[in-house]
Amino acid sequence: MSEKILILGGTNEAAKLASDLVDAGYDVTTSLAGRTKEPEPVKGAVRIGGFGGSEGLANYIRQHAIARMIDATHPFARQISLNAKRAAEMAQIPLERQERPPWQPHKDDRWVEVETLEAARDTIPPKAKVLLALGSQHIDLFRTREDVHFIVRMVDPPKQDLPLKHHSLVLGKPPSDAAAEVLLFKTHDITHIVCRNSGGSGAYAKIEAARKLGLPVIMVARP
């Protein structure tokens, strides 16, 4: 029997890792949070939804005879990474953390680096038009900035009205082409970008586009 590996995924790197391990003959299950209705296909088995904290994850590991766990979640997914560490200790299996390196500022970038989302919110100047490149769970934090127009990009339509006084909604995944992002920024007269330093190539096009247009990027640092 091949070794059973549980990947905590949701990133491009996790999908690539699952593909490589399946091709190498391992029995791989990738766990996804379930925030996206139609996630990209992943090789091997896929589990969608939460575990119920660290104890629930430890129980899952025991019940499914998982031999090894790999945390390849988003760099800002702090809670699941903490749960994974505790669950691995409880179930007494090895845990590996694979985290992509953060973006580094280019000499032509106009980054304003902040430590928290609250600081990012407070850094936005009045009357700005801001691309809010964050997960849907973080939007409510910006509701107090009624003097700002937000352009919110989401993969799936929101289940309820966004809590922002002035906003435009853009549906779809971020393009990998900087030219497409430049067009979006010009179409919406965007003046600033707010994002987290997620790293990786999947969402880097917005950073390149901001550089081309000379736009400030309010960049939230890694936790």
List the helices and strands and how they pair.
Elements: E1 4-8, H1 12-23, E2 27-32, E3 45-48, H2 53-63, E4 68-71, H3 78-91, E5 95-97, E6 110-114, H4 117-123, E7 129-133, E8 149-154, E9 167-171, H5 178-187, E10 192-196, H6 205-213, E11 216-220
Parallel strand pairs: 1-2, 1-4, 2-3, 4-5, 6-11, 7-8, 7-10, 8-9, 10-11
Helix pairs in contact: 2-3, 5-6
Overview of this structure, please?
The protein contains 6 helices and 11 strands. The protein is of the alpha/beta class and 223 residues long. The chain has 2 domains: 4-97, Rossmann fold, CATH 3.40.50.20; 110-220, 3-Layer(aba) Sandwich (Rossmann fold). The strands form 2 sheets. The chain has a 6-stranded parallel sheet. A 5-stranded parallel sheet has the order 3-2-1-4-5, sandwiched between helices. β10 (192-196), α6 and β11 (216-220) form a beta-alpha-beta unit. The longest helix has 14 residues, at 78-91.
Structure summarized in a few sentences:
With 223 residues, the protein is of the alpha/beta class. It is built from 6 helices and 11 strands.
**CATH structural fold name of the largest domain:** Rossmann fold
| Helical content (DSSP H or I, runs of 4+) | 25-40%
3D shape: elongated
Percentage beta strand: 15-25%
Q: N-to-C terminal Cα separation, in Å?
A: 39 Å
H/I helix tally: 6
Strand order of the largest sheet: 6-11-10-7-8-9
- Describe the main β-sheet briefly: 6 strands, parallel
Given helix and strand content, the structural type is alpha/beta
Q: Briefly, what CATH class of the largest domain?
A: Alpha Beta
Write the H/E string, N to C: EHEEHEHEEHEEEHEHE
Catalogue the unreliable spans.
none
Number of domains: 2
The CATH architecture term of the largest domain is 3-Layer(aba) Sandwich
> pLDDT average, as an integer?
93
Backbone CA Rg:
19 Å
